[in-house]
Design brief:
The protein is α/β, with parallel strands linked by helices and 294 residues long. It folds into 2 domains: 81 residues, Arc Repressor Mutant, subunit A (Orthogonal Bundle), CATH 1.10.10.10; 205 residues, D-Maltodextrin-Binding Protein, domain 2 (3-Layer(aba) Sandwich). 38% of the residues lie in helices and 23% in strands. It contains 9 helices and 11 strands. Strands 3, 4, 5, 6, 7, 8, 9, 10 and 11 form a 9-stranded mixed beta sheet that branches. Helix 1 crosses helix 2. It is elongated and about 70 Å long. The two termini are 45 Å apart.
Length: 294
Amino acid sequence: MDSLNGISMFVTVAETRSFTKAGAQLGVSSSAVGKGIARMEERLAVRLFHRSTRSITLTAEGALFLERCRRILSEVEAAEAELSELSGKPGGRLRVSAPQLTGLVMPTLTGFMRRYPDVVLEIDLSERMVDIIEEGFDAVIRTGTHHDSRLASRRIGACPQVVVASPAYLARHGTPAHPRELARHHCLLHKFAATGRIERWPFKLAADEPEPQLNERMTCGTLEAITYALLQGEGIAFLPTFIIEDELKDGRLQVILADHIEQTVTFSLLWPASRYASPKLRVFIDYVVQNLRI
């Protein structure tokens, strides 16, 4: 148990980057934390942290050790939860990251909260590509394909992506009949927050046909903001249909260039691969896969 306590202390210091904050979380003094880390470094014969008067940062060895320690603590938590599962409901804190698509993910997450009131969700909604293992997330919802041997995954669903504009915009500027005509239109472009790269509009082109030029009117990292600009008649955008389902049905937006583009976006749920998943994670995985409608 002393080793587990030391591991827990090390992880807390690594996450808070402060002996004082770690001590406050653990209910001990900062000096006790410092001495505990020093003893661990002496026992391991390796330095885990770079220390200065202003900051504490992980060494390369410390970063490697952190990943292992998080797995150890996760396994311990899962084992304890499995032993108590027969006498209680899934409970505890669950850290979740998802795209910044409030209208899509929040109905499912709040539904999960009602179904499992003993599970406390810590939700990170952002376009940032989080490191699930390094940042200590229990599960993330992501788009696209993923190849990481450290992670397990389940497919949630998929939906088409389309080029759209409002009738008001098309009445003022005309409807493009070919992607090359977008050079004279107002294009509302999505920028990936993690890379700063503009999302490509994957038109079907002949082998010798050049990539169409998109006349940039606006770039934005959130699809909901692009949808708002679309509805104000500010331009043309490329979006997944789940975001604009209602607007397409009631005619506030309409699909254009449908014969020139064919793209599907896939959603998956990913979590750290381990032999045992805690009860709270298992019920979360099942609930999201069954209830998140793409």
